Amino acid sequence: MSAHLSIRNLIKRFGGLTATNDFSLEITPGSSVGLIGPNGAGKTTIFSQIMGEVRQDSGQIALDGLELTPLATARRIRAGVSRTYQVPRPFAEMSVAENIRVGLMPDNIWSMIAQGPDPDRELELALSVGFTKDQLEKLPSELSMGDLRKLEMARTMATGPRMMLLDEVFAGLTVGEIAMISGLVQQMRADGMTFLIVSHDLKALEPLIDRAVAINHGTLIADGPYDEVMNDAAVRASYLGT
Amino acid sequence: MGLRWYHFALWAAFAAGMFLLPEIVPRGTLRTIIFANFLAIFAISWDTLSGRTGYVSFGHPFLIGIGAYTTAILTKRFDVPVEISIPLAVLMTMVGGLIVLLPALRIKGSYFALVTLAMMELMYQLVQVIRPDLTGGTRGMSGLPTLTRGAVNGFYMSTALMLSIAFTTWLLMKTRLGTALSAIGMNEEAVAGSGLSVTRLKLVAFTASAFTAGLGGAVYVHYLGSIAPRALFDINFVFTIIVAALIGGAGTTIGPILGAFFLTFLLEYLRPWLPGAERYLIYGGVALVLYMYQPKGLIYLMGQAVRRVRKGAA
Amino acid sequence: MLQVLIQGLLLSGLYALIAVGFTLVFSVGRVLNLAYGAYLLIGGYAYFYFAQSLGLPKFAGVLLAGILGCVIGLVKYRLIVKPLKGDQVAIEIATLILAVVLQSAVILVFGDSSKILLPIIPGVERVAGAAIPYSNLFAAVASWVILLALWWFVKTTHTGRAMQAVSMDAKGAAISGVDADRINMITWAISGTLGAVAGVFFASYTQLYPGMWVAPLIIAVAVVIVGGIGSIIGTLIVAHIVGFLEVMTSAFIAPELRGVFTMILIIGILVLRPKGLFGREEI
């Protein structure tokens, strides 16, 4: 169930800007890592490279020893890694249930046609992220920011990942919603899910991770237990904007 | 979203109503309905690709044309019987369309629309100059074998074809495949982010669209008994197909049918006042106002009205 | 050979003028105006009506055609483009419908049959056995003058530079105090004027008929696609590629095939480089 992610010497340049600078990271099966750094440090770019939405210039990304680099995004998700987006991207004219349905679909045209949707599983996923049963037929336009994040979580979970990348899952959420999502993450951790989490809400992040990794200007500047990383001089300096 | 018994009952009622029409309406109206049927088929085909996935094709006659020309050439020049030439034409549309448009599917948005438009113009120009002994050149071909005689038979044939295409498409779009195709139209990246191969889904949408276009085009040629490049590869024809789908309601199956009937009859009723091409002035004006007012089309407006009445009653 | 060269130059100049109005709107507003060809149609017919039916001076005919194009451009922006708020597909569809509406309006007023425009300047010059009508020469020269004036306008005036800013980064321009709405309106007005004037020349080159808007639209599309979005220089270069391609095809291969290579060029470029050949740099 758990997955092992291995990133080696990842480099990505956009024109003159080095977004990822020789970045390496090992995430052991079942562990949870927080990726922190100031705005524009290159956190989301690393996510995009893991998912294949942005191609690295050089370096390797492997999941359980399977090299992801040649694979398209859909294939990487089938390999077991899935992500949420900082800005939720629901299917605007589909209900909550239908949004989750897309995540649950197998990547196989025939079974898409031959087998109907699985409403029980859709309901189960919706409930697990904290939707109520009567929200199932709601459209994204009728949902709050917190609900949209939950929907994003549910659709990501629906693809059956062994590793999840969470990008700013707490932004725009109420205290109650943060507690809800945190509880969900903790439960998945207990079940062996591997996590890589980006969050500006460090207070909410801390209890969810075994280890923190700090980057600035695409370069790894600290890696270790949360307290140690937060007390690191370079990390403090990066947050002050130098 | 799921299938319910009343969906099938509604389809059955629709089909029964259509097949009763020859008993009620005059011959002239039947002829109008025949054209509406074919337009509906083309609009459904357009909608399968463009209405669902959001890849707008401005060159749909390109696909219709492959089907139409294949069967026309086979029957006229090689004396192939219609029963064989039509399936071959459909196959040719799917294969030919795929070969030509496969590279275009990675092009997004406006550029995709432009490539399809260019494709249609290219086809128009090539048909006239390459092997005119086969294609009939600028004049096209006439005296092709026809499938039916008389308005009533033509009506039954076109209605049966339209209904079976519409019903099949509707069933297909009710499956999870249909949901996935619509999802592409809403947010392509998020579909990829749900672990689905977008390229493969687009290919399926395209192939289904080409199948319908090829079938419709081939049968249409054998209804008319003639084919002319200017009438086929014409921007006015593109316009009619797209407007029918949009006015009725893109992304639905009944919408394009509704739109096709609405537009065909509008055009027909304008004939006494405006006999020539200037009818398109009113036709286009109505289409433009409706589209600007509600891009989701008549089907959505009707749904809204029903919801309002229900709310009033409750 | 000389004949091909001269004809190529003349036709390319006209094509550049046809394409530049389309490019401008695409560049500044990111909008494909599929009714662009209708400016040419309206311009051609307006000139026909004012200069030939009413017998006004020819210069007045061109001027009035330009004014009409300008007004239609403004109305189109206000009533169709702005309410659709940057939904590109919706704008394309709406403008395509509009083009057909305008075409049928022309049919309603002027009828279905084609009309011959009298040459703007009568007379023919013979160069190396080739007959060059003064009209075509005038059209090409006028195109170059207009293009140079436009280039000067975009590079040096305040409004022109604001247009450049919006075309590069609409949000950034808005933050620096550029009124993007006003700039868009001006761009649509210029585009309409250029299109209508190009229509007068184009109609005198070929003939005046209600379906005449499709061919120039395709040319404009080809130029935009091959040249990438936006540069005036790129437009000029590509207009010459397309123009010479057509002239050479009709001279050396077959006149009926003249448009074929333009289409193949569009399709080939888009398939190989989905963002156009030169990409986008500046207006």
Automatic annotation (TrEMBL), chain B:
Keywords recorded for this protein, A-Z: Cell membrane, Membrane, Transmembrane, Transmembrane helix
MF terms (GO), sorted A to Z: branched-chain amino acid transmembrane transporter activity
Keyword Transcription regulation assigned: no
Annotated compartments: Cell membrane
Transmembrane segments: 6-25, 32-49, 55-74, 86-105, 151-173, 203-225, 237-265, 280-301
Topological relation to the membrane, as annotated: Multi-pass membrane protein
GO cellular component: plasma membrane
Identification of the protein by name: Branched-chain amino acid ABC transporter permease
Organism field: Aliishimia ponticola
UniProtKB/TrEMBL annotation, chain C:
GO cellular component, one term: plasma membrane
Transmembrane segments: 6-26, 33-50, 56-77, 89-111, 131-154, 185-205, 217-245, 257-274
InterPro entries reported for this sequence: ABC_transp_permease, BCAA_transport_permease
Record's bilayer topology term: Multi-pass membrane protein
Compartments, as annotated in UniProt: Cell membrane
Keyword presence, DNA repair: no
Keywords recorded for this protein, A-Z: Amino-acid transport, Cell membrane, Membrane, Transmembrane, Transmembrane helix, Transport
Gene Ontology terms: biological process: amino acid transport
PANTHER family listed in its UniProt record: ABC TRANSPORTER PERMEASE PROTEIN (PTHR11795:SF450), BRANCHED-CHAIN AMINO ACID TRANSPORT SYSTEM PERMEASE PROTEIN LIVH (PTHR11795)
Protein name: Branched-chain amino acid ABC transporter permease
Source organism of the structure: Aliishimia ponticola
